[in-house]
Every structure is written in structure tokens, then in C-alpha cells.
Design a protein that fits this description.
The chain is an alpha+beta fold. The chain has 2 helices and 5 strands. Helix 1 links the parallel strand 1 and strand 2. The mean pLDDT is 87.
Length: 119
């Protein structure tokens, strides 16, 4: 898929999104609803109601890029959102597993060091 620097953050919009939306509307969601700067270079992930389509937008210093995946069969796994917020931050590994169709809840993550972020 993508190779990302460790500074890139991944934000998932948890409400279903109309996949007819283009760059302007998705970047507006990133800013107005998710509270993030769409020009930051971070990834903004959107899924449709059925869960068989995903769009990811990001700014690459000269324009917006759009990555779009439409499953021919099956659905993407829904992400648990206990806080019921409209935005959820995930890591690259979790995004990769979701896009590859691997059950997140059937796997176990071993303990790793994670530096606490300030702010």
C-alpha cells in the first residue's frame, strides 16, 4: 500500500461517508468535523455505510491525493469506538490489517514500548 514516515498520523471518520464525495468535501470533513488540518500530510480515512468502500486522502506538499478501494466481495471490519466520537486515531498497522481484511479481534498484540505524545 503506502510507506509512511512515523510522524504521519491516521484519522478515521467513524460515521458513514458518501463515497461520491471528492477532495473538497473530504478535506472539509477533516477540518470541520475531525478538527484536523487537511494540509498536514496526515491520512484521513473514510468508509461508506455498507463497509465495502474506503477512501483515504492526504496532502503531499503539492496537492491532495486520493486512495480508493472498492471491495468486490466482503466488507471492511468496523472499528470499535467506545467513546462514540466521530474521529478515531489508529496506527498504520491497524489500518493495513483493516484494508487487508484481517480480523482485528482475532489477533493479539504483544506489548511494545510506546512513547507518550505531548499535547
Amino acid at each position: 500500500m503506502l510507506t509512511l514516515p512515523s510522524a504521519v498520523r491516521i484519522f478515521v471518520y467513524t460515521a458513514p461517508t458518501d463515497m461520491r464525495c471528492g477532495f473538497a468535501r473530504l478535506s472539509m470533513y477533516a477540518e470541520a468535523i475531525m478538527g484536523q488540518d487537511p494540509f498536514s500530510g496526515h491520512l484521513f480515512v473514510f468508509f461508506n455505510r455498507r463497509g465495502d468502500r474506503c477512501k483515504i486522502i492526504f496532502w503531499d506538499r503539492s496537492g491532495f491525493c486520493l486512495w480508493y478501494k472498492h471491495l468486490q466481495q466482503g466488507t471492511f471490519q468496523r472499528i470499535d469506538n467506545p467513546a462514540q466520537s466521530t474521529v478515531l486515531e489508529i496506527d498504520f498497522v491497524r489500518l493495513s490489517l483493516i484494508l487487508e481484511g484481517i480480523d482485528l479481534y482475532g489477533t493479539k498484540r504483544r506489548k511494545r514500548y510506546r512513547r507518550k505524545m505531548s499535547g
